[in-house]
Model the fold of this input.
Amino acid sequence: MTGRGLLLDLGGTAFGSGLERLALLGEREPAVRSIAARRGPLGPEPDPLWEAMLRGEITERGYWRARSDEVGAALGRPGWPITEFMHLLYGMVTDVLRPEAAALVKDAKAAGIRVGALTNDLAAFHGDAGMADDPFIAGLDALVDGSVTGVLKPDPRAYAMAAEALGLPPSATVFVDDMPWNAAAAREAGMIGLLLDLTDPAEVFERARKELGL
Done:
């Protein structure tokens, strides 16, 4: 054992990003192709909403609410719940877990390292069941969901809750997230905060592996 624990964000980090899923939806649904071309750093067209989120003008949840409204209108389902949008995005793949995340978690568990998740929107985006049948979530040692606790990253209290749930001090916790402010807040909370680059997601899991001594 390394004496450290692994804490992962879910959407975009442990799981593939909704931006990646939006590309698949655009391939399948012609009415959505122009919308799917605007996918943050992954799309061929500029994404003003993403840029507004990076500037702090809208929240991450607000970004996905707006994209849900756009896609719903294009598919003739205006006003649909965001949970239906997320079910559509993530229902297009049989395994939502990133392969690199799966390999890291497997090796961490084999080494006796505790693994948890700190997310803002699991219940908010996927309903109260929150992917309860997903084997990754079922196998976690700790799960802290801001849409259940009411405390969202980057609030320092969210990281304190996650460290407590994991049973480790923040200084012994390696945290990975795809939003820069969340990774920065983790470092401010005393964790080893690593930022996932959506254009090269595999790279951060190698850094996490080294931090965990694997």
